[in-house]
Amino acid sequence: MNRLYYVVLLITFVFLPNIASAQQALIRGFVTDLSSEQPLQGASVALFQEDRLILGTATDGDGYFNLNRIRPGEYELRVSFIGFDELREQMTFSGGQLVEKSFALTPRAAEIGEVVVEAEMEGGVTTVVAGLETVALAEIKRVPVPGVSGDLAAYLQTVPGVVVQGDRGGQLFVRGGAVDQNMAYLDGIPVYMPFHILSVFSAFPEELVDRADFYTGGFSAQYGTRVSSILDVHARNGNKQKLAGSIALAPFLSSVTVEGPLVPGRVSLIASVRQSLIEELFPSLVGQKMPYRFGDRFGKIHALLGSSHSLSFTVLDSEDRGDIAGTKKSVFGEVEAQEITDSTQVSWTNQVFGGTYNYRSNRIPLVAEVTAGSSKMTNEFGPEDDVERRSTLESIDLKARLTYQFSFADLSVGSTFRNTKFSLLLDDLFTDLTTNRDELQELSSYVESTFELAQGKLSVNPGVHFYNLPQRSQNWTEPRMRVSYWPTGKTGRHQFNASWGIYHQAISGLSDERDLGNIFYAWVTTPEDAEATQAEHAILGWNVRLFPWMNAAIEGYYKKYDNLSVPIFSPFPKFTTTQEDANGTAFGIDARLNLENRPFWFESALDGYVSYAYSKVEYETETYTYNPAHDRRHQMNALVHAQKGEVGMTIQWQYGSGLPFTPSGGFDVWYLLTPGVDVTKEVGIDRILYSKPFSGRQPTYARVDVWLERRIEKGRYVGTLRAGAVNLFNRANLFYYDLFTFKRVDQLPFLPSVGFKIEFR
User: Fold this and answer.
1) How far apart are the C-alpha atoms of 700 and 729, rounded to whole Å?
2) What CATH architecture is 235-760?
3) Where in the chain do CATH 2.40.170.20 domains reside?
4) pLDDT band at 465 (very low <50, low <70, confident <90, very high)
5) Class of domain 23-120
6) Burial class (CB within 10 angstroms; exposed 0-12, middle 13-18, buried 19+) of 446
7) How far apart are CA 315 and CA 149, in angstroms?
8) 16 phi, psi to nearest 5 deg
9) 414-436 mean pLDDT
10) CA-based torsion, 125, 126, 131, 136: positive or negative
11) 286: confidence class by pLDDT, cuts 50, 70, 90
12) pTM above 0.90, yes or no
């Protein structure tokens, strides 16, 4: 099987891309606003023959586009952007020709329809490509959160197959994978805990995101070291023409964003500062303390060094601290305020910085990229002045990628070196590892190709990833494959997708899985005498456009895990690093229906979506077979947005079936048996004992949020006012039940929010 795969892969890489490679032509350049000279991000650039779309792309944050694999011949080039006059130009391309051409579009009062191009077929809430969603800025804005600006975290929670244990904690479980099996990148640099303590917020707000590639499984050969999901976020470049920015005020999260040219037309800066205010403004709200403090600082410099070279530097700093048991109810139902020094305090920080150099050859269709960066994450448990546990993970990344663009294929090779240092402080009585320092070196290399067959109806992306631990002389070969098929071409109604791959991971995050309220992870390496965690993914999906304004998607997936490292279950409730091996499976089916700008009553328009996910996750150890805490069988999300002129209204509904938990099995009295202890006189310590692991289920989760928004544009200035409420019906959704104190810890109650933002552009 493997030998045949590599033979096919070799034929693909060496022979197929070279067919007619000399016939390739290339056009690239910039698209700008004629009136302001500002780059137009997301403008469509497409080539047509006899009104039939041949090739298309969209501009990036600098208004830059690159159309390659153009066969010789005559074309009509169309450049369009909503709110601007469409530009059309007849062009003739010859084999091997390189054309550099920029376009300035003229604004118009009436909006025009935008050309649907190939690049847009890979984005949107229902356009899923075998586990990959390319999230555009418009999709992030679509899901409102408390405050005024959208956030990538809120959008990701609407993706079928993504499970969140609560509205606090910053943890996402993706299609059966655990938290430590996910990896997030910002401009190619790892961010180990990118989500804030209130889970609808992250370090990726709408003001900063250019696009994000979210792989819920089956990711391609360029990604490795994780076995469940990849989130690859590309930050926006600042405005290179004029000063712009925004100021947002809201009780949950306020922000200031500034961008502008350092060297006009060449070098730009974008910077952002965000900070929560709920701890100061709402010390008590509807009987609920709000002991949450979080914020982040971001900066990026981007420079165009001529027509072929660009350089960028990115920095991110974030902090979170809060009390996950900020709301507790007794068995009689009354709310009890908790001190901020409660031992359920958690905190984490991220410090990320690095840079990327990009080179696009003027003579041959070659793109090279080199990234270097450093990332540090610290996770703590306990009061700020008396921390009980601490885990620190610090890594340095060096990576390079080289892509050659043939006439109908791309061939990419790349490599990543990562050196990671771990340190632990686990000061618990029942911990077999109290302090630890470790270091791990990881070397990943890959080769992959993307090419088209059957007159562009079939896209095939084979690849192979090589994962190596130099210090341990361990290595793994991981074949990958992704396929997309359009029966009637890329502008047709139907698209079928499939992906398959093998993945390995040599680090893990340890936690006491018995406790639903535990969000502390101790990061460690896989022991040298143990096998790394291995996963195999298989995904099959179908997308269909039912009407011009409605499309649907359905995907089935299967993930098989080997050599998982899970805590040994004990009836005694204490954090422990004692581990045992387990195998696991995760499978499910995700379905979604998407509505886009459907005319509605009183000259308004509707858009929205509804999605359903079924999944089953099962772990098996030598002792138990159980469903872990993130095994949510049924999940639904729905959102409807109505817009009339400058006024919009959004209603969002979320539902999830109960998550597993480990119930109480009884009590005993514990004695510290040291010399001089007389058990006939000592009182001892009352202890609760756990029952069979995950043998209970929490109640179902349901929440309705409602938001009203008014947007006013005056020249360069845009004002947005948003008001609404989280958990409109004040449903008592359980976060977890404290078995020690018999206190109920609920998720967020009814919380009103008002926010205002002013943008200047």
Assistant:
1) 15
2) Beta Barrel (2.40)
3) 235-760
4) very high
5) mainly beta
6) buried
7) 21
8) -60, -45
9) 75
10) negative
11) very low
12) no
pLDDT for residue 629: 86
Give ranges for CATH 2.60.40.10 in the chain.
23-120
Residue-level pLDDT at 516: 55
3 vs 449: which has the higher pLDDT:
449
DSSP string across 233-253: EEEPPPPSSS-EEEEEE-SS-
Residue 24 CA to residue 8 CA, distance in Å, equals 24
Rank 27-31, 195-199, 361-365 by mean pLDDT and report only the highest.
195-199
pLDDT tier at 462 (50, 70, 90 boundaries)? very high
Tokens at residue 597, please?
Answer: 């700008």
pLDDT at 555 exceeding the cut of 60: yes
DSSP β-bridge partners for residue 414:
401, 446
Q: Mean of the pLDDT values across residues 142-152?
A: 87
Average pLDDT over residues 580-599: 90
Q: Looking at the DSSP assignment, which residues form a beta bridge with residue 249?
A: 756
pLDDT at 350 over 90: yes
Contact 255, 249 (CB under 8 A): no
The pLDDT confidence band at residue 25, using thresholds 50, 70 and 90, is confident
Element at 321 (helix H, strand E): strand 309-323
Can you tell me whether residue 392 is helix, strand or coil? Answer: strand
Residue 226, SS3 per DSSP: coil
What is the Cα–Cα distance from 157 to 163, expressed in whole angstroms?
7
**pLDDT value, residue 21:** 45
3-state secondary structure 398-462: EEEEEEEECCCEEEEEEEEEEEEEEEEEECCCCCCCCEEEEEEEEEEEEEEEEEEECCCCEEEEE
Q: What is the CB neighbour count within 10 angstroms for residue 500? A: 18
CA gap 124, 137 in Å, rounded: 10
Cβ-Cβ contacts under 8 Å for 659 (sequence gap 6 or more): 163, 165, 516, 629, 630, 631, 632, 697, 698
- Reported confidence tier of residue 115, pLDDT bands at 50, 70, 90: very low
List C-alpha distances in Å: 204 to 62, 143, 301, 316, 338: 19, 14, 17, 10, 31
Residue with tokens 């000279």: 37
Residue count of the chain:
761
Taking alpha carbons only, the member of 254, 284, 281 closest to residue 146 is 254
In whole angstroms, how large is the CA radius of gyration of the chain? 27
pLDDT at position 5 is 53
pLDDT of residue 455: 78
What residues does 211 pair with on adjacent strands? 136, 234
- CB 197 within 8 Å of CB 169: yes
List where CATH 2.170.130.10 sits in the chain. 121-234
Q: Going by CATH, does the domain composed of 121-234 fall within 3.40.50.2000? A: no
The pLDDT assigned to 9 comes to 53
Inform me whether the pLDDT recorded for 635 exceeds 60: yes
The yes-or-no verdict on residue 547 having pLDDT over 80 is yes
Measured CA to CA, the distance from residue 221 to residue 449 in angstroms comes to 9
Contacts of 639 (CB under 8 A, 6+ apart): 142, 143, 158, 608, 609, 610, 650, 651, 652, 653
What DSSP letter does each residue of 547-605 carry, written as one string? ETTEEEEEEEEEEEEEEEEEEPP-SS-S----EEEEEEEEEEEEEEEEEEEEE-GGG-E
The set of residues, in sequence order, having a beta carbon less than 8 Å from that of 212 and lying 6+ positions away, is 134, 135, 152, 204, 231, 232, 233, 234
